[in-house]
Amino acid sequence: MKYRIIVSSLITLIILAAIIYDVVSVPSQYVEPASGEETSFKGKIAPRFSLTTIHGEVVDRESLKGKIVLLNFWASWCAPCIVEFPAMRRLAEKFDGNVIFLAISIDDNISDVYKFLGKVSEKNSSDFVKIVWDEDKKISAGQFHTVRVPETIIIDKKMMMRRKVVGNPQFWESTEIYEYINGLNDG
Fold first, then answer.
1. Which parts of the chain have pLDDT scores under 70?
2. Which residues contact 74 (CB under 8 A, 6 or more apart)?
3. Is 38:116 a contact under the CB 8 Å cutoff?
4. N or C: which end of the chain has fewer CB within 10 A?
5. Are 148 and 75 in contact (CB under 8 A)?
6. How far is Cα 61 from Cα 115, in angstroms, rounded to an integer?
7. Is residue 14 in a domain?
8. What is the CA radius of gyration of the chain?
9. Element containing residue 22 per DSSP (H, E)
10. CATH at 127
């Protein structure tokens, strides 16, 4: 009898701990402060990186200088990623090649990346959309310390990290982000 009480109490405690952990660790949808307000990385230069897109194009920090970069970390299983991907593509299109949408997948399998791209109708390469599979997570977790998706770092023309947006797909269609990027573009 005591054994059953101990086991059921232990199971209840484990379930309760899991629920509390889940509630505490789920990223809330937020946008980090805009220009003029401090962020943990604001004004730091983006780390050096060299990536090969799924179309075989090599993209590195030096080749992106002079462009604003939306460095987006995503995964095919991420519902907000599916929503924001087309919105970010449309946003980049508005800036006539001055904004690069660098979309880095953290999926475990390249086949999942291609399935996702089929869902969002992004099968072809373009001058302003670059799609990368971060197979070993050296870029996402290793260099940019990304722990959740979607997460986007906005990098200015001098490769300075300016802003981080986490988990807010509707933000990419807002007037605020258009004006923010337009301000970086003019600067």
1. 1, 16-42, 122-126, 187
2. 81, 84, 85, 103, 104, 105, 106, 149, 150
3. no
4. N
5. no
6. 28
7. no
8. 19
9. helix 2-25
10. 3.40.30.10
Does 2 map to a domain? no
Model confidence pLDDT, tens digit, residues 72-101: 999 999 989 988 998 998 899 899 889 999
Q: Give φ, ψ of 55 to 5 degrees.
A: -100, 5
In a domain, 96, yes or no: yes
pLDDT reported for residue 16: 64
Are the C-beta atoms of 99 and 68 separated by less than 8 Å? yes
Q: How far apart are CA 26 and CA 40, in angstroms?
A: 20
Indicate whether 8 belongs to any domain: no
Contact 137, 106 (CB under 8 A): yes
Roughly how many angstroms between the first and final C-alpha of the chain, as a whole number? 73
pLDDT at 30: 37
pLDDT at 52: 92
Q: What percent of the chain is modeled with pLDDT above 90?
A: 40
- What type of residue is 97? G
- Domain extent, residue 119, equals 31-186
